[in-house]
Amino acid sequence: MAESDAPDRPTPPPETYEAIMQATYRAFCKHGYADLTTREIAEEFAKSRSLLHYHYDTKQELIVALLEYLLESHPAKAATDEIADPDERLELFIDRGLFGPENAPFDFWDFHTALLELRLHAHRNDAYREQLDRTIGLITDLLAATIREGIETGCFRDVDPEETAQFLYDAIDAARIRKITLGHDDAPRRTRRAIETFVLPTLRAADDDR
To answer: Which residues bind DNA (predicted)?
Structure first.
């Protein structure tokens, strides 16, 4: 039976769902995408393997569920509640995108290495592509909303929020890819310095304009 034809499975109770997603996340970061199997996910799951397969039968089902889980709890959402000032919030978005959240319960680079492997399969997998596209959309939408708020409050110049948000996301993403694929460990730091030197001064309104 093809995965797309798999029957609907019972929705796990919240506690079980959380445990399965955390197990999938740990295995994903530890093994990457290409080498990941449901057996390795089950080894991270404290409960029985049969319970895992009762709710999720395949690796794809688990990965799609994990992407949805991560989307709902994405740290970019928390930044909107943490910081009221749009300028400070934008800086936090940039720093978290390049260096990861402080005190994160995972290795930022292990996760993004595995995620990059997954992205390489997305062009042949509609389910992966849809979830990854939603994640990028969430981040760029939050960036654009922050920039738009800054324009409305006089903190930022009157720029195109969507275009600026997409540019920032692409710059951050490129820096992560360079570090992961080419070993350019200074790429995030250099990109952060370039954003601070060339992008943010152009975005920020002069004192006379406020």
So the answer is: 37-56
